[in-house]
From TrEMBL:
Residues 29-247 form the Glycosyl hydrolase family 36 N-terminal domain. This is Alpha-galactosidase. It comes from Marinomonas sp. (strain MWYL1). Pfam families: Glyco_hydro_36N (PF16875), Melibiase (PF02065). The lineage of its organism: Bacteria, Pseudomonadati, Pseudomonadota, Gammaproteobacteria, Oceanospirillales. PANTHER family: ALPHA-GALACTOSIDASE C-RELATED (PTHR43053:SF3), GLYCOSIDASE FAMILY 31 (PTHR43053). Keywords: Glycosidase, Hydrolase.
Length: 722
């Protein structure tokens, strides 16, 4: 007890001592978040902080102010969304009042156990700072009574500072995922996703911060729900002045019923705080993703056959494309849709996972052996295991295996239905087919696709959207355990299923079906707020984009693709020798710098006029950097603006090297910058605080720069040599 308060205080500092978490736990009532942010001094009096935050009691409101807690309680007068909403026939469960049982110290935080003896419910809150600095919380609700409990809501809640008055989020559609939007935050903001997957429109994340926060300035908080299905996100502002964020799985009516002693847990709710803008927030999420990924090798260059051949599988053409790919430096060859029995278009055969004997009379092994043994590449294969076409042997034999209400006519999307993985027979069939193929063939990589939303997600009467996602996670986990060397990519009509939940089982995301480099610049920027570049599939498409009909030079396409996990989605048999040589050069740059891109820290650096952006990667020792400057539209001024590259060592000398660039347009400039064809060496402070002037580029052009520390013997700061 401190300052006369019968409250326990629990403090945790992050591994690097940069962040502090403080939780206040009263005996009666839910735990409160006293502080989460930049580190507090070790001797800070937590009781005095708590006392200083007790507000006056306003007129026309509750006689006893309801605290803003980590589990808002309807039973104590909380009039916004509570953490728990449930109903039962034998006792009141819809207005819980929590009492503290105990607090257990964990390796990364605390487990706080509470109960309500009237509602006969208990809840545990696991909360703490991970080594990355990211705050993790998760709730588990248990039915301690005899009668069933129907759960309508189980939501993680994060109170935030009153000074956070601006919000930033995402919207999108197919081929335009991860679009960013922002607005003032003075009222309730709500995002509900009922698509079964995240969908292109509802990435489960939001950011809030002080007015005017940006990439390099301002205090900001980003949150993400690690879940691959229906969800609800809320950013609320109450009449009392409380601000808070909530995240939950969106349970459909009657979906979650807890029998006696049964429990249900939320997904992880992750949050990162930064006092210096969005880049520092993103870097924490990147660090957390990398800790989970534990990638065993560099990200190999891909070639995917989809935009080259679609469903036209001809062995001679497939081998010729593989040879062309190997010649330019591709390291992993992925055979896309069309290889299995009866799959000649997108109207049939999903679910019939047997090699098509008419296309592959000797099976897949001749192609696999050619790719792996003769060309030295890895081999990958496309699947869509969660789907079934009505025109398939599987559906004709087992129509009851579809995830649909049998009482109604099914709603098709892309000529297909969802396979009900929550049904044990369907789950075992798919599991057997996958295990059989992965045992028969030496497959290094699986492109796991999922091309439609859920509708009528049920097998009989009750909804099963939540059970479907849980079954998917279970299947992926079993595959990872059985085939640990095989990597899985999460693709879902592009970026419709991207989150930390499925990241626990996969190594890569397909961010968008759009390979248009201009569209990709915005898509990839949005993707980067929560996920690192090494998990972002980004491919060099053909001259003319299949989704927009835009035409871009190879440098703009390749430089944009280099910002992620680079691949090729282009029929190289149509490329001329010059194009192949250019691609080979870009692939060499990627291989030389991928450790830097995928292990270093990454920054988004928009230009002041909003017409250009720089993606900047810096090694952990700050001695090597790579910058991709992209001119997206005509600049608002005649000259380009200086590009400043942050976080370099101030006194260290660095050499600036121009590695690749789009064509330099004579119609926009009479002369190049004076340093362009000379050796330029600057110290880190000059590059970070003054910056570089670049040539004037046409819109939809870019330049690739390498920044390399000079040996200590060099001493020519500010000089350049002919």
């Amino acid at each position: 007890m401190k300052n006369g308060l019968d409250i326990g205080f629990y403090r945790q500092d992050s591994k690097d001592q940069s962040k502090t978490l403080v939780i206040a736990c009263p005996k009666q009532g839910a735990p409160e978040l006293l502080y989460f942010g930049d580190a507090l001094p070790a001797q800070t009096d937590l009781g005095s902080i708590y006392l200083s935050q007790q507000a006056a009691i306003p007129q026309a409101m509750m006689d006893k102010p309801v605290p803003m807690s980590l589990l808002p309680e309807a039973g104590r007068g909380w009039l916004q969304t509570p953490a728990v909403e449930a109903s039962a026939e034998d006792r009141p469960t819809w207005a819980a009042c929590w009492s503290l049982l105990d607090v257990e110290a964990l390796e990364s935080g605390f487990k706080i156990r509470l109960e309500d003896n009237v509602a006969q419910l208990s809840v545990s809150l696991s909360i703490g700072l991970l080594p990355s600095g990211v705050l993790r919380q998760q709730l588990t609700l248990t039915n301690q009574g005899q009668g069933d409990v129907m759960v309508q809501r189980l939501a993680c809640t994060l109170p935030v500072a009153a000074r956070f008055t601006e919000r930033m989020g995402f919207y999108g559609r197919w081929c335009q995922e991860f679009q960013q939007e922002r607005s003032d935050w003075h009222a309730t903001w709500l995002q509900e996703n009922r698509n079964g997957r995240n969908s292109q429109a509802n990435f489960p994340a939001v950011m809030v911060g002080e007015q005017g926060f940006g990439e390099q300035q301002g205090e900001v908080l980003g949150v993400h729900l690690a879940w691959s299905g229906n969800h609800r996100l809320k950013a609320d502002y109450t009449a009392e002045g409380h601000r808070y964020l909530q995240a939950e799985v969106l349970y459909l009516s009657g979906e979650i019923i807890l029998a006696a002693n049964a429990s249900i847990s939320t997904p992880e709710f992750l949050a990162a705080h930064s006092g210096t803008g969005l880049n520092a927030m993103s870097q924490q999420f990147h660090q957390e993703a990398r800790a989970r990924l534990q990638l065993a090798k560099p990200r190999p260059v891909h070639l995917n056959t989809w935009e080259a051949f679609y469903f036209d599988h001809d062995m001679t053409k497939l081998k010729a494309l593989a040879k062309a790919a190997a010649d330019v430096g591709v390291e992993r060859y992925i055979l896309d849709d069309g290889w299995f029995r009866g799959r000649n278009n997108d109207k049939a055969a999903l679910g019939d996972w047997f090699v098509d004997e008419s296309k592959y009379p000797d099976g897949l092994m001749p192609l696999i052996s050619y790719v792996k043994e003769e060309l030295g590449m890895e081999f990958g294969l496309w699947f869509e295991p969660e789907m079934v076409n009505p025109d398939s042997d599987l559906f004709r034999a087992h129509p009851d295996w579809a995830l649909q209400l049998p009482q109604y006519k099914p709603a098709l999307a892309r000529n297909q239905l969802v396979l009900n993985l929550a049904k044990s027979e369907a789950y075992q069939y798919i599991r057997e087919r996958l295990f059989s193929l992965f045992t028969e063939y030496p497959i290094d990589y699986v492109k796991w696709d999922m091309n439609r939303d859920y509708s009528q997600p049920s097998g009989d009467i009750a909804p099963q959207a939540h059970a479907q996602v849980e079954a998917l996670y279970r299947l992926l986990s079993e595959l990872n355990q059985a085939f640990p060397a095989m990597e899985i990519e999460s693709c879902s009509s592009g970026g419709a299923r991207v989150d930390f939940g499925i990241l626990n089982f996969t190594k890569r995301f397909w961010a968008s079906d759009c390979n248009d480099a201009l569209e990709r610049q915005t898509i990839q920027r949005g993707f980067s707020y929560f996920l690192p570049p090494e998990v972002m599939g980004s491919h060099i498409g053909p001259d003319k984009s299949h989704t927009t009909s835009r035409i871009h030079d190879v440098a703009f396409r390749a430089g944009t693709a280099m910002l992620g996990h680079l691949g090729i989605e282009w029929n190289l048999l149509d490329a001329n020798d010059e194009q192949k040589a250019t691609i080979s050069n870009w692939l060499s740059h990627y291989k030389r710098h991928r450790a830097l891109l995928h292990e270093g820290k990454n920054w988004r650096l928009p230009s002041a006029d909003g017409r250009a952006q720089t993606q900047w990667a810096l090694s952990q020792d700050r001695l090597q950097g790579l910058a991709v400057y992209s001119q997206l539209a005509m600049p608002k001024q005649a000259q380009t603006l200086p590009v400043r590259l942050p976080n370099l060592l101030p006194d260290q000398l660095y050499r600036v090297n121009v590695l690749e660039h789009s064509p330099l347009p004579g119609h926009l400039m009479k002369a190049l910058p004076e340093w362009w064809k000379k050796d330029l060496i600057l110290n880190g402070a000059s590059l970070s605080q003054v910056g570089l002037r670049l040539p004037i580029f046409d819109p939809e052009s870019l330049v690739l720069l390498a920044i390399q520390a000079e040996p200590e013997s060099e001493n020519c700061d500010g000089e350049y040599n002919e």
